[in-house]
Every structure is written in structure tokens, then in C-alpha cells.
Amino acid sequence: MKYLIDKEKDALIIVDVQRDFCSGGALPVPEGEKIIPILNRYIKKFSEAGALIIATRDWHPPNHVSFKNHGGTWPPHCIQGTPGADFHPDLELPAETKIVSKASSADKEAYSGFDGTSLEKDLKNAGVQRVFVGGLATDYCVKSTVLDALNCGFETVLLLDAIKGVDVNPGDSERAIREMLNRGAKKGFFKDFEDC
Questions:
Q1: Residue from 10, 20, 45, 102 carrying the catalytic annotation
Q2: N or C terminus of the chain: which is more exposed, having fewer CB within 10 Å?
């Protein structure tokens, strides 16, 4: 399938490409940083088209409910204002990128970029009808963001060459991809844009 970017109706959503989710971070996605070069190509393509680019980030307080020392599943990560919460330095975000901070309340989990944020309203106010989603991690924040985008009524394209998963349980990422596609997400690869 070929995609032609419509600057009035399309947006690129980059999910949680932060230092803590890459090699050397507090909660690294295996080979997470390997998707950054392809994400940068998507960023360039959407930027040249004049389309909206959004980057979500975990923005946790130090006592977040998801942390093991507060009864959660994960080691402390992406704590507000720490280097681990920064976007990966190789990610080439334009100055006009809209930053969406999520999971910033201590007592609430929020894997999706739509959960507890103004993302849905901001997209609809901008006239966006279709979103293209890539980032980290396939089986958690990417999946939740894609499913919420679909629930909000956006046509949603999963950028299959620009995602990586954690796979806490073997096969989690593949199952997540199947679920997203079964729920109505479309597949996207960079080659689908090359003739645009």
C-alpha cells in the first residue's frame, strides 16, 4: 500500500524514544535504538510535507506506581527531569515537534499517549484524521497508543519497520502486532512512502 502524506489530515506519532528505553538505560528495549535511523527518515518525510509531528514521553514522578519499589512491575525509569527521561540524542526531532508527556501522576499507569493527555483533542483540533505510529515499545506503549487512536476514530497506520518490543514473555511483540492489526490498524513501511 502506498501512502501520500496530507499535511492537513496526517500526523506522525513517535512513542517514547527515550534514553531509559535504549541501550544503557534503566529499562532498555532490546536493540531499541536500532529503529532511530528509520524514525529519522519518517520525521524528515513528514517534516518536508508540513505535517504534524508528535513525540510522546514517559514523564514519571520518582514515586510512580509502575516502579517496583512502589508495588509496580518496572525498575524506576523516565523520571521527570533526569537524563533517562530525555529523548535519545540521535532522534532528530524538529523544533516544532509537539511533546506529549504521559504517566506524570504518581498513582496512575498510562501506557498510551492518549491516556490523561490532550492528544486526542489536539489532533482533532488540528484536523488530523490519520496517524502513523512508531517507537517503543511495541508490546506496551506503542500498542496502547495505537489501540486508543483507533478507539478515538483515527485511521491508524502501524510503522512496522520503526517499532521494537520488550518481549517480557516470548512472542509478546508479535501478539501485540496481531492485536493492533486485528483491531483495524493498517501496516506501514518506509518503502510505502518513497514515491510520494
A1: 102
A2: N
Instruction: Please check whether residue 5 lies inside any domain of the structure.
Output: no
Helix (H) or strand (E) holding 118: none
Q: Which one of the listed residues 22, 141, 143, 164 is annotated catalytic?
A: 141
Is position 141 annotated as part of the catalytic site? yes
Output the tens digit of pLDDT for each of the chain's 196 residues: 899 999 999 999 999 999 999 999 999 999 999 999 999 999 999 999 999 999 999 999 999 999 999 988 899 999 999 999 999 999 999 999 999 999 999 999 999 999 999 999 999 999 999 999 999 999 999 999 999 999 999 999 999 999 999 999 999 999 999 999 999 999 999 999 976 5
Cα first-last separation, the chain: 12
Q: Are 137 and 166 in contact (CB under 8 A)?
A: yes
Name the CA radius of gyration of the chain, rounded: 16
Give the domain extent around 146: 10-192
Give catalytic status of residue 102 as yes or no: yes
pTM (2 d.p.): 0.97
Three-state DSSP class for 180? helix
State the catalytic residue, choosing from 16, 20, 58, 148: 16
Inside any domain, residue 185: yes
